[in-house]
Write a structure and sequence with these properties.
Length: about 375
């Protein structure tokens, strides 16, 4: 292993791991903040197609996404890493999000292949993690190469070289406490891009993006399509295509925020706020139906069989559906005190588990 990589690992283990494992994103009593990160900009065009540039497409989609969120969610604060055609260094993008104690980070990009190769098409949504294939590594290399536009990048990023596969060994040591939320959000967005915008599905993937490594919150990186593919580029450049993509990402955000709000309400009611707890317990029961409390611990687009390893030994497990999404629960009781004890047990296996409430078999909170 090269000396610079050894140094990088030591710095990471001594600095980044405690940061990622010990810092929460945003206090729940504060305003929900989302940072939209249109990639590239200014002197960095990003991927270049036959008639378009990545930096222009992603800026348009990012600004439209922000307007949709602001219009429909007055309780959400929207920040941009750039709102015009200017160059922003990768570490500054992360710094904007971290200083704002943001709750969500959305980085928007377009993909491309060398013109000598036949280009695929389709959308893919990435979270930070190991490279499951050479294709994932190639995408990460291409997006990370932006640091070469920065002065002294080898010093600033502690010897990281985007073209050197050995540099990516650091991601094997990541202990990202936000990974489960990131995967959940990525799945929501990817499903919308495929089903609503009718894009070719290249799935949710993991790869080592520097910009995602640096942020301390749930985060995703969206590749809207291949600008090197003639059909994709035509769609990406069109006003209707950009509007549809922004709308699909927004729909994914809307579902994520809805679940976040439900979880925040239950957490607040369980943490000693007697006013909220009383409201929760005194909700009228419809048609004489008894209230039921469960612990929700997993959300997936897949239907798992009883005893699946995904449940980490929890049994018996129930589920309910929300559209095409399966939401898995454990435990069932009419007493809130009992379900709070169950929640403590489940969080040993699923730290993001939370309490949900049913009446007559239908979820109400």
């Amino acid at each position: 292993m090269k000396p610079c990589i050894k140094l990088l690992l030591l710095l990471f283990l001594g600095v980044f791991l405690p940061f990622h494992s010990g810092q929460s994103a945003n206090p729940q009593n504060g305003k929900f903040t989302v940072v939209i990160d249109p990639g590239h900009g200014g002197k960095d065009p990003g991927a270049v197609g036959s008639v378009s540039k990545e930096k222009d497409i992603v800026l348009s989609v990012g600004l439209q996404l922000g307007k949709l969120i602001e219009r429909n969610h007055p309780d959400v604060k929207v920040l941009y890493t750039r709102s015009s055609d200017r160059f922003v260094e990768l570490n500054q993008r992360a710094e904007i999000a971290n200083k704002a104690h943001a709750d969500l980070f959305i980085s928007i990009h377009c993909n491309a292949l060398d013109r000598r190769r036949t280009s695929p098409q389709g959308v893919e949504t990435f979270v930070l993690g190991l490279h499951r294939s050479k294709d994932n590594l190639d995408v990460a290399k291409a997006e990370n190469a932006v640091i070469m536009y920065e002065d002294d990048y080898s010093v600033k990023y502690e010897g990281f070289n985007p073209n050197e596969p050995e540099s990516y060994i650091i991601f094997e040591f990541m202990a990202n406490e936000f990974l489960s939320q990131s995967v959940y959000f990525a799945t929501l967005v990817q499903n919308q891009l495929v089903n609503s915008s009718k894009r070719v599905n290249r799935s949710v993937r993991q790869a080592g993006f520097l910009v995602l490594r640096e942020v301390a919150m749930p985060s995703i990186l969206i590749e809207l399509g291949y600008i090197s593919n003639r059909n994709d580029e035509k769609y990406l450049k069109s006003a209707s295509g950009q509007s549809s993509l922004a709308s699909s990402i927004y729909q994914g955000f809307k579902e994520y925020k809805r679940e976040y709000d439900k979880k925040s309400y239950v957490f607040a009611g369980s943490a000693g706020d007697s006013r909220k707890s009383t409201v929760l317990q005194q909700t009228p029961v419809a048609d004489g139906a008894e209230k039921e409390y469960r612990v929700q611990f997993l959300t997936s687009s897949r239907k798992y069989a009883e005893g699946s390893s995904a449940f980490k030994g929890l049994s018996p497990v129930d589920f309910y559906t929300d559209g095409s999404t399966y939401k898995y629960t454990y435990g069932s009781t009419e007493k809130q005190s009992e379900i709070e004890q169950t929640l403590k047990e489940v969080r040993r296996k699923f730290k993001d588990a939370f309490i949900v409430e049913f009446e007559g078999g239908r979820r109400i909170k």
